[in-house]
Amino acid sequence: MATREAKTATSEDIWTNDELAEVRERLLLEIDELHTEILRAEAELATGNSSEGAGDDPADAGAKTYEREREIALTLNARDVLAQNERAIARIDAGTYGVCESCQRPIGKERLRAFPRATLCVACKQREERR
After folding, report:
1. Are residue 56 and residue 111 in the same domain, yes or no?
2. Nearest-angstrom CA–CA distance, 111 and 109
3. How far apart are CA 76 and CA 62, in angstroms?
4. Same domain, 93 and 111
5. Same domain as 110, residue 80
6. What SS3 string covers 57-118?
7. Residues 86 and 39 in one domain
8. What is the distance between the alpha carbons of residues 63 and 85, in angstroms, rounded to a whole number?
9. Residue 128 lies in a domain
10. What is the mean pLDDT of the chain?
11. What is the residue range of 126's domain?
12. 121 and 57 in one domain?
C-alpha cells in the first residue's frame, strides 16, 4: 500500500537558477514599489492636521475620517505584502522557495508564478481556509 509521504519532485517542481533569479527580480521590483507607496502614504498621514475639519458638518468630518482610516488600512496592507516579499526572498536564499511550509511538498511553479509569495501548496492552503 502506497503512503502519502514526500512526493518526489518533478521537473515542473524544480526551479532553475534563471527562474529563481527572475522571481527574485520581480519580488525586488515589488519591494521598491511598496517602499515608495508606504513612504507616500505615511507622508500624507503625517501631514494630516488634527484641527483640519474644525467646523465641518458631520458628513464632511465622517468622510475625512473614513478616508484617513482607508489610507491607514492600505498602508498596513502594503507593509504586510512587503514582509511577504522579503520572506519569499529569504526562502530563495535558503533554498526552500517552492516548498510547502506545512507538508514539505513542492508548491508547484504555476501557483508560484501566479502568487510568488505563496508558502503553502494548494491542498494545505485549502485546508487552512476551512478552519
Report:
1. no
2. 5
3. 21
4. no
5. no
6. CHHHHHHHHHHHHHHHHHHHHHHHHHHHHHHHHHHHHHCCCCECCCCCCECCHHHHHHCCCC
7. yes
8. 33
9. yes
10. 86
11. 98-131
12. no
From CA 102, how far away is CA 12, in angstroms rounded?
A: 20
Cell of 72: 491607514
Render pLDDT for 22-45 as a digit per residue (tens, 0 to 9): 999 999 999 999 999 999 998 888
pLDDT band for position 55 (cuts 50, 70, 90) = low
pLDDT digits (tens, 9 = 90+) for 93-131: 999 999 999 999 999 999 999 999 999 999 999 999 998
Task: Determine, yes or no, domain membership for 1.
Answer: no
Average pLDDT over residues 5-31: 81
Work out how many domains the chain is built from and give that number: 2
Residue type, 129: E
Same domain, 75 and 106: no
Domain assignment present for 2:
no
Angle at 44 between CA 59 and CA 117, to 5 degrees: 105
> How many angstroms separate the CA atoms of 15 and 119, rounded?
15
The C-alpha cell that represents 39 in the structure block: 513612504
108 and 122 fall within a common domain: yes
Q: In which band, very low, low, confident or very high, does the pLDDT at 1 lie, cut at 50, 70 and 90?
A: very low
